[in-house]
C-alpha cells in the first residue's frame, strides 16, 4: 500500500475565539477526486492552509505522502490553487513564466530552465489550451484562463496532490469543462485532488467522494449519500449539526 496523499488527524485550528476547524480527520488516497462542500465560514480554506502548512494547528497533525507538508512541498508534490480573492494578479509575470515557476523545484544547479523544463511548460500550456496566450500578462486573463494557468503549472510541476479552493467560482462553462477533463486525466494518473465547490449539481459527475464540512467533518463518503436531503440539511441548513 502506498502512503495516503493526505492524512489529517484530530486537526483543530483557531483564529482567536473562532474555532475554524474542530477535530478534523481526513484521509485521501491517490487517484481520487474528493469534493469539499460546506457553507461560507465552514473552514474549507483553513483546511487547505493547514494542509499546506501555512496556518498553525492548535492541535492535531497533517501528513502528506507519509511526511511533513514542508517536505512534500519541497519535492514539488503539491500544487495549491488558493481562492481567487486571495491572489494578487497584478504582479508582472507572463503566462509562460507562471507555469515555469512549477519547474523551480526541478531546475539544475544553474537555476536556469533547460530544454526539458521549457518542453514541460510548452506541453502543459498546450494541454490546457493556452498556447496562444503564453506571452500574455496574467493580469490580463479572464477568470477561467487564470484557473487554466494554475492547472498548467501543476502539470508542469508533475504534482501528485492538487488542492483547488473554489476553482470554478467566476469561471465560464467552457473553461470549467476543460478543467474538469484535465482533472480527470490527472486523477487517472494517480494524482489526489481535493476540490472545494459550491456547484452541487456538478458534484456527482466530478467527484469520486465528498467531504461535508461544518468546522467538523459531518460526512465523508459517496457523493450520492453526501447529497441526500438529510445530509444537505445538516451541512447547509440552519439547524444545529
Ligand atoms: N485570518 C483569519 N482571521 C480570523 N478569522 C478567520 C481568518 N480566516 C478565516 N477566519 C474565520 O474562520 C472561519 C473559517 O473560515 P474559512 O476557512 O475561510 O471558511 P470557508 O473557506 O469555508 O469560507 C470563519 O469563521 C472565518 O471568519
Ligand atoms: Mg474559502
Descriptive notes:
- The protein is α/β, with parallel strands linked by helices and 241 residues long.
- 34% of the residues lie in helices and 23% in strands.
- It is built from 9 helices and 9 strands.
- It has a 6-stranded mixed sheet with strand order 5-6-7-3-8-9, sandwiched between helices. Strands 2-1-4 form a 3-stranded antiparallel sheet.
- Helix 3 runs parallel beside helix 5, helix 4 crosses helix 5 and helix 5 packs parallel to helix 6.
- The mean pLDDT is 93.
SSE arrangement:
Elements: E1 6-15, E2 18-28, E3 33-37, H1 44-52, E4 59-64, H2 69-74, E5 78-81, H3 95-101, H4 115-128, H5 143-157, E6 161-165, H6 173-188, E7 192-196, H7 203-206, E8 209-213, E9 217-221, H8 223-226, H9 229-236
Parallel strand pairs: 3-7, 3-8, 5-6, 6-7
Antiparallel strand pairs: 1-2, 1-4, 8-9
Bound molecules: adenosine-5'-diphosphate (ADP) and magnesium ion.
Which structural class do you get from the secondary structure elements?
A: alpha/beta
Strand order of the largest sheet: 5-6-7-3-8-9
Share of residues in strands: 15-25%
CATH fold assignment:
Rossmann fold
Major beta-sheet overview: 6 strands, mixed
Whole-Å distance between the termini? 35 Å
**Ligands present:** adenosine-5'-diphosphate, magnesium ion
Please provide the ordered H/E string of secondary-structure elements: EEEHEHEHHHEHEHEEHH
Query: Percent helix among the residues?
Result: 25-40%
Assigned CATH class: Alpha Beta
Number of strands: 9
Number of helices: 9
**On the 0-100 scale, what is the average pLDDT?**
93
List low-confidence stretches: none
Q: Cα-atom Rg, whole angstroms? A: 18 Å
> From the coordinates shown, what is the CATH architecture?
3-Layer(aba) Sandwich
Domain count: the total is 1
Q: Note the overall shape.
A: globular
Amino acid at each position: 500500500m502506498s502512503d495516503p496523499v493526505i492524512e489529517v488527524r484530530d486537526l483543530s485550528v483557531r483564529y482567536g475565539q473562532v474555532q475554524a476547524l474542530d477535530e478534523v480527520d481526513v484521509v485521501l488516497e491517490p487517484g481520487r477526486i474528493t469534493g469539499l462542500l460546506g457553507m461560507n465560514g465552514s473552514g474549507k480554506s483553513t483546511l487547505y492552509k493547514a494542509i499546506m502548512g501555512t496556518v498553525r494547528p492548535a492541535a492535531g497533525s497533517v501528513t502528506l505522502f507519509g511526511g511533513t507538508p514542508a517536505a512534500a512541498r519541497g519535492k514539488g508534490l503539491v500544487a495549491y490553487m488558493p481562492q481567487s480573492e486571495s491572489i494578487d494578479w497584478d504582479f508582472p509575470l507572463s503566462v509562460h513564466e507562471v507555469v515555469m515557476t512549477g519547474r523551480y523545484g526541478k531546475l539544475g544547479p544553474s537555476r536556469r530552465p533547460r530544454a526539458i523544463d521549457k518542453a514541460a511548460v510548452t506541453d502543459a500550456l498546450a494541454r490546457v489550451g493556452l498556447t496562444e496566450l503564453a506571452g500574455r500578462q496574467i493580469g490580463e486573463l479572464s477568470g477561467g484562463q487564470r484557473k487554466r494557468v494554475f492547472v498548467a503549472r501543476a502539470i508542469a510541476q508533475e504534482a501528485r496532490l492538487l488542492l483547488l479552493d473554489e476553482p470554478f467560482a467566476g469561471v465560464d462553462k467552457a473553461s470549467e469543462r476543460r478543467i474538469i477533463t484535465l482533472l480527470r486525466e490527472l486523477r487517472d494518473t494517480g494524482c489526489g485532488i481535493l476540490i472545494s465547490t459550491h456547484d452541487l449539481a456538478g458534484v456527482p459527475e466530478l467527484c469520486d467522494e465528498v467531504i461535508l464540512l461544518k468546522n467538523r467533518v459531518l460526512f465523508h463518503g459517496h457523493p450520492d449519500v453526501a447529497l441526500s436531503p438529510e445530509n444537505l440539511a445538516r451541512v447547509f441548513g440552519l439547524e444545529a449539526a
